[in-house]
Amino acid sequence: ILCGEKKVRIPLEAQVTKQESKLKQLEDVSVIQDFLEVFTEELHGLPPPRQVEFCVDLIPSVAPVARTPYHLAPSKMKELSEQLKELSEKGFIRPSSSLWGAPVLFVKKKDGSF
């Protein structure tokens, strides 16, 4: 391998065949087939293929990291409640009982709001 170039050696006896790359269709994605109720009716298709594919390797039966929740000042707790209620009403979020989560961090804007 040379600085981003890939050398491939093919023995003379080998036959080289060209295989057209098939773009994935929605029907090819098992997750979509397994959880149809989660996906909208207007699912227009998959995004174009990326140069780099990312994946997260999950480790079965790993317990979440137990941490004490951050303490919030009453003003921030009130703002959190209001924002969660608004996002829930708009349908952007929904109640969850997941053991995995992320902390909330508020940053004040120039006008003093969060």
Rg over CA atoms, rounded to whole Å, is 24 Å
Largest sheet geometry: none
Element pattern in H and E? HH
Percent of residues in β-strands:
under 5%
Structural class based on helices, strands and sheet pairing: mainly alpha
Work out the number of β strands.
0
In percent, how helical is the residue content? 10-25%
User: Helix segment count?
Assistant: 2
Q: How would you state the average pLDDT, rounded?
A: 73
Shape: extended
Structure overview:
- The chain is mostly helical and 114 residues long.
- It has a domain at 69-91 and 104-114.
- It is 18% helix and 0% strand.
- It is built from 2 helices and no strands.
- It is extended and about 50 Å long.
- The protein starts with 29 loop residues before the first helix and ends in a 25-residue tail after the last helix.
- The mean pLDDT is 73.
- Keywords: Nucleotidyltransferase, RNA-directed DNA polymerase, Transferase.
- It comes from Tanacetum cinerariifolium (Dalmatian daisy).
- GO terms for molecular function: RNA-directed DNA polymerase activity.
- InterPro entries: DNA/RNA_pol_sf, RTL1-rel.
- This is Putative reverse transcriptase domain-containing protein.
Which properties best describe this structure?
mainly alpha; 2 helices; 114 residues; extended
What is the gist of this entry?
Keywords: Nucleotidyltransferase, RNA-directed DNA polymerase, Transferase. Helices cover 18% and strands 0% of the residues. The protein has helices at residues 30-34, 74-89.
